[in-house]
Amino acid sequence: MSSIALHNVSKSFGAVDVIRDVSVDIDEGEFCVLIGPSGSGKSTLLRIIAGLEPLSHGTITFGGRDVTGLSAKQRDIAMVFQSYALYPQMTVRENMSFALRLAHRPKAEIIEKTDRVAQMLGLEALLERLPRELSGGQRQRVAMGRAIVRDPSAFLFDEPLSNLDAKLRVQVRGEIRDLHSRLGTTSVYVTHDQVEAMTMGQKIVVLRDGRVEQAGKPLELYDTPDSVFVAGFIGSPAINMMPAKIGESADSLRLEGGNSSILLPHGYTVEGGRDVLTGIRPEHFDITDNGEAGAIAGKVKAVETTGSDTTVICDTPLGEVFVASKQRSSLKPGEVISLRPNAEKLLIFDRKSEKRIARKP
Questions:
Q1: Where are the domains of the chain?
Q2: pTM, whole model, 2 decimals?
Q3: What GO molecular-function term can you cite, just one (predicted)?
């Protein structure tokens, strides 16, 4: 396994810039997730790392070795695709061992490695079956097994769970995470699902329009997003973003569209009268008695529950507000309530640049 470093990587298709001056360092053995909306360039960036797409500018190094001009087969990587990409006429064993047979490895080594990986993935009983005889989850395990037997320096995953149902996604997500813990191989994983990113990634790189918006540990991005975009993209339910103005005395802010005034938490130094955006995570609201000072008046629009989690959607003078809780709620649509934000958890962004205003410790 090896570290992966991208230095000022750019990619253009004609006049269209798809990747724009991306620099990312992925440590040896790290599980890095590339995430972003459709069209952000994450799959293109993965293909560039794999050597399947030539870059227009910049360099890529694996373990300090410049691989920019090397083909995919010279980079010692293994890729797992969304579509499984299994050979339909080959059995599970033949699919998993294909790269080893192509490299003319000794027969005993091929059998030993294939059997060991099949046991690791729970595929022992399926080795003589064809792909059409497997479920989606089993096919994805075979695709992962084919990558693992090669013992590559890095694994690249291109949205491997997109074709699975919700229950299987959770199961295979856990299997990939466990495999990484066991093998410790450097991995780059592309997804548009922020739950996958938060639960699997040791590092998350958020892409927007071909640029890195922010990179860091999952909870760093959740607690201290650099921008409104990252704050809104990471987290489910999504963060509540509200326009506000800093009070003239610079010790409070007033939420526009309502009469709520909130004391600024310790550590914020913002000039009075400045237009800002205030971000409040859904779990940082309390539902209180009507009319409490500093609370936001609201009317329940809907109550969504998954059994373990409850989201109350409210109409307020500030727009639609989401309130999340582990407690079950007896609220009904149409009920009038008050919402009290936890001021210590506020995130404040400059309204023009949409960049977070730093809070001193």
A1: 4-232, 237-349
A2: 0.90
A3: ATP hydrolysis activity
